[in-house]
Design goal:
This protein has four domains: 2-86, Integrase, DNA-binding domain (Double Stranded RNA Binding Domain, 2-Layer Sandwich), CATH 3.30.160; 102-219, no CATH class; 239-432, hpI Integrase, Chain A, CATH 1.10.443.10; 439-467. Helix content is 48%, strand content 11%. It contains 18 helices and twelve strands. A five-stranded mixed sheet has the order 1-2-3-4-5, with helices on one face. Strands 8-9-10 form a three-stranded antiparallel sheet. α9 (238-254) crosses α16. The longest helix is centred in the middle third of the chain and has 21 residues, at 179-199.
């Protein structure tokens, strides 16, 4: 390596390297180097041997970085290396990790959970953080203090301020505060910060970020603890609901409104399966096996695959869907351009139809949201005594990572889930008055037997016994 006193004229006259890089040393500051590449680009760096290893760190490009400034910077870094033994490159990487922004932490979090986090959930996370902390997105996540979290949580609760992407978009709110939204925002922020706190570490594995600032909401008991939604179709309203559903579907089919008919079928499937909206609307025909009487969902909200039985009601539904299927149709419930996006107006139409005629009985419309079908299914399942583990599987609640050891040994196929699914289906149909209940049939049979003479009873038993097949 050639060494000389760095001057502007001398450095400017250095030719491009013939191959690789050529390095020159400064005689004024021992350890200051200039590297010249094939293109002629020149950059200052330091080089110092420490503990048997060469430590190198780039300072900047020449002539943007002057020789005097390069020498001053080199002396500072070389002195730090001599006294602490720390590698400037490592220090730079650590500083970059410690200054990670909320946006970058969110992107890394979503990317790390690519196979586990649904597209809708990732979209919701981005939206909630952007809406209520958009002015924080480009700031270091370490700068989000406990005080800032507490203040922002209260602001979202009160609806006093709406936070946009930057300070220029901050504006007064109009009383649109929400305890649920405030807690949701804080939970998302907590998830991102906890991930970042564990993910970004130095070379020795030590964390670089302070403790999650959302802890202040727990220590000061600021969480609102909003009550979980309980809306569902009551069992005594199922008959009215299904009549309204059938009426809207008939009108849609007569008017060739394929999307409205598809939404009606999708809503019916939600009630008889408890599946989530995306799991139903994104169901494709290649995951439906009518011959084997089962269908499956590849990617669910919790990331686990789910195989479910096709009960009698679902079989009729799938066959009805198959008749309306286009030659190149992929989805069971297709929209104009792929997955159905606009459906609220059709569900509102069903709710309105639950009040027939002139409302002589002073009935109120039965409201409905997608998740109400899931709660309705779960409630009926509990009423008919379906086991907790089976219900979790039917509802696709995570079982594989449960703390319940016993649960980890239970795995049910679609065939094994057919019987409990059929019991739930039967109960829904009975409550809706679409089939006669077993209790009613038993009562009718007992009443009929009471009216028979002893001879007629013996003859009936004899006739029934002849028709019983011996297995």
């Amino acid at each position: 390596m050639e060494t000389f006193k760095f001057t502007k004229a001398k450095l400017e006259s250095l030719p491009p390297a013939e191959r690789g890089q050529v390095e020159y040393g400064d005689t004024v500051v021992n350890g200051l180097r200039l590297r010249v590449g094939i293109s002629g680009a020149k950059s200052f760096c330091i080089s110092r041997k420490r503990n048997g290893k060469f430590i190198r760190a780039t300072l900047g490009r020449f002539p943007d970085l002057t020789i005097d400034n390069a020498r001053a910077k080199a002396l500072e870094l070389l002195g730090d290396v001599a006294t602490t033994g720390r590698n400037p490159n490592v220090e730079k990487r650590i500083n970059e990790k410690a200054l990670v922004t909320l946006k970058d932490a969110l992107d890394t979090y979503i990317k790390s959970r690519d196979e586990r986090l649904s597209t809708d959930t990732a979209k919701q996370y981005r939206s909630i953080l952007q809406n209520f902390s958009g002015d924080w997105m480009k700031q270091p996540i370490a700068s989000i203090s406990r005080e800032r979290v507490e203040t922002r949580h209260k602001a979202v609760t009160d609806g006093s301020v709406w936070f946009g992407a930057d300070k220029s978009t901050l504006r007064a709110g109009v009383g649109t505060g929400s305890k649920a939204q405030a807690d949701l925002w804080a939970r998302v922020l907590r998830a991102i910060y906890r991930f970042a706190h564990d993910h970004y570490r130095d070379e020795e594995g030590k964390t670089l970020l302070p403790d999650p600032p959302t802890m202040v909401l727990s220590t000061k008991r600021k969480w609102h603890g909003t009550v979980r939604k309980t809306e569902r179709i009551r069992t005594n309203e199922l008959g009215r609901w299904f009549r309204a559903l059938s009426s809207v579907r008939d009108i849609a089919e007569q008017g060739r409104d394929d999307i409205a008919a598809a939404v009606c079928d999708a809503v019916e499937m939600a009630i008889f399966t408890g599946l989530r909206k995306s799991e139903i609307l994104e169901l494709s025909w290649d995951r439906v096996n009518l011959g084997g009487r089962y269908f499956w969902i590849d990617t669910t909200k919790n990331g686990d695959p789910l195989e479910l039985p096709i009960t009698e009601t679902l079989l009729k539904l799938f066959r009805r869907r198959a008749k309306m299927k286009a030659a190149d149709g992929l989805l069971v419930f297709p929209g104009d351009k792929g997955v159905i996006k606009e459906y609220r107006h059709i569900i509102d139409r069903i709710s309105a139809a639950t009040v027939p005629g002139l409302n002589s009985d002073q009935l109120n419309p039965i409201p409905f949201k997608w998740h109400d079908g899931r709660r309705t299914f779960g409630t009926v399942a509990e009423l008919v005594g379906v086991g907790n583990y089976i219900l979790k599987r039917l509802l696709n609640h995570r079982t594989m990572r449960s703390a319940d050891v016993t649960q980890g040994y239970l795995h049910f196929s679609a065939d094994e889930l057919m019987e409990p699914a059929a019991r739930i289906e039967r109960a829904i149909l009975e409550h809706a008055g679409l089939v006669e209940s077993k209790k009613s049939l038993d009562t009718r049979l007992l009443n009929a037997l009471e009216g028979l003479s002893e001879e007629e009873k013996h003859r009936l038993i004899f006739d029934l016994s002849k028709n019983i097949k011996v297995v």
